[in-house]
């Protein structure tokens, strides 16, 4: 890599870091166009006018504008009203249109609200919009416009998310009341128990880059869900220069695991918390990417542990605040014995 390429890459990383750490304000609308420039997305602006309106209505109608953010197949239309003598623009609507004619991409939250519109009207800064837009851009970049039947990452993402929800509810019998899609107006599937967000499954952008610490290339296959057999498979098709949208499991709540359960994620990701021989995930541990093997053979045990830990063990701890009492009440021993029968 030449010095100029190294400089450009370092500069892009610095800009991305600053944008994530301290994003600009939503208003005025020019801040969104600046974001597009940083993400290398095309954009254009048009005035919206209904020729059937009378002259009095036209005056206000001519103040309505549309900012269109465009990629290869991605178009995100943002409709807004320009306020005279003001930097404030009233954002009216945000609509995603795909040139592939795929119209089932879900950008609504658990309340049925448009997450992009919420990003730009309920948030004062562009943090969430920036995060969501980067995911959309990756899907757009990775899609092959010459072969959208098999390489449309918008369809792949949506089919995978739909498959996960069906798998969790219909196959693993997890209550639909604990599963929330696009919670907090970001792309995710969130598991919530008793009003507390426990963990999320989030899309992550994978490119053909080496892990700096381990000096190894990250390779994650596409996930394929078989609805009839209710099982997952890793795609065998080669990914061009290993670009992919993968899915990462992120814990949002403090949960401890026993030594056997910690093997689900690899013992190198855990540290002993010196309490009842329990282990906690290291903050510096490797990301937990979902694979077909993990979903088919391990996720159900992970969910059982999380559910038991949050509803029984943690409650016992709060009541007694005494590890010996937890051991005496038999709950931990009972569950430890059950875990011993699990095969993974």
From TrEMBL:
Family annotation (InterPro entries): Mediator_Med1
What domain of life? Eukaryota
MF terms in GO: transcription coregulator activity
Domain Mediator complex subunit Med1 as annotated: residue spans: 30-150
- What does the UniProt keyword field contain? Activator, Nucleus, Transcription, Transcription regulation
Q: Does the keyword Transcription apply?
A: yes
GO CC, one annotated term: mediator complex
Q: Name one GO biological process term.
A: positive regulation of transcription by RNA polymerase II
Q: Where in the cell is it found?
A: Nucleus
Give a short account of what the protein does: Component of the Mediator complex, a coactivator involved in the regulated transcription of nearly all RNA polymerase II-dependent genes. Mediator functions as a bridge to convey information from gene-specific regulatory proteins to the basal RNA polymerase II transcription machinery. Mediator is recruited to promoters by direct interactions with regulatory proteins and serves as a scaffold for the assembly of a functional preinitiation complex with RNA polymerase II and the general transcription factors.
Give the family from UniProt.
Belongs to the Mediator complex subunit 1 family.
What protein does this entry describe? Mediator of RNA polymerase II transcription subunit 1
**What organism does the UniProt record list as the source?**
Hanseniaspora valbyensis NRRL Y-1626
């Amino acid at each position: 890599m030449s010095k100029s390429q190294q400089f450009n890459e370092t500069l892009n990383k610095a800009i991305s870091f600053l944008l994530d750490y301290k994003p600009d304000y939503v208003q005025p609308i020019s801040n969104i166009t600046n974001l597009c420039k940083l993400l290398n997305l095309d954009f254009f602006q048009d005035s919206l006018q209904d020729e059937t309106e009378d002259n009095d209505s036209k005056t206000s109608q001519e103040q309505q504008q549309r900012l269109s953010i465009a990629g290869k197949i991605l178009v995100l239309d943002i409709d807004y009203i320009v306020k005279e003598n003001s930097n404030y623009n009233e954002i009216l609507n945000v609509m995603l249109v795909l040139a592939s004619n795929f119209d089932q991409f879900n950008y609504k939250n658990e309340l049925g609200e448009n997450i992009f519109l919420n990003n730009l009207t309920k948030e004062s800064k562009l943090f969430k919009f920036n995060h969501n837009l980067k995911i959309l851009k990756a899907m757009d970049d990775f899609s092959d416009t010459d072969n959208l039947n098999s390489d449309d990452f918008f369809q792949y993402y949506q089919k995978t998310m739909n498959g996960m929800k069906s798998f969790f509810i219909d196959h693993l019998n997890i209550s639909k009341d604990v599963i929330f899609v696009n919670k907090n107006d970001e792309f995710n599937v969130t598991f919530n128990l008793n009003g507390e967000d426990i963990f999320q499954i989030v899309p992550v952008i994978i490119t053909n880059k080496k892990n700096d610490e381990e000096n190894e290339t990250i390779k994650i296959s596409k996930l394929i869900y078989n609805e009839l057999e209710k099982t997952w498979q890793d795609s065998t098709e080669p990914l061009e220069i290993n670009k992919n949208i993968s899915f990462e499991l992120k814990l949002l709540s403090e949960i401890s695991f026993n030594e056997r359960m910690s093997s689900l994620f690899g013992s190198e990701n855990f540290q002993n918390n010196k309490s009842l021989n329990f282990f906690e995930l290291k903050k510096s541990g490797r990301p937990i990417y979902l694979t077909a093997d993990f979903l088919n053979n391990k996720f159900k045990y992970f969910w059982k542990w999380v559910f038991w830990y949050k509803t029984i063990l943690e409650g016992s701890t709060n009541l007694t605040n005494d590890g010996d009492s937890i051991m005496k009440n038999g709950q931990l021993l009972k569950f430890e014995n059950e875990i011993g029968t699990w095969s993974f």
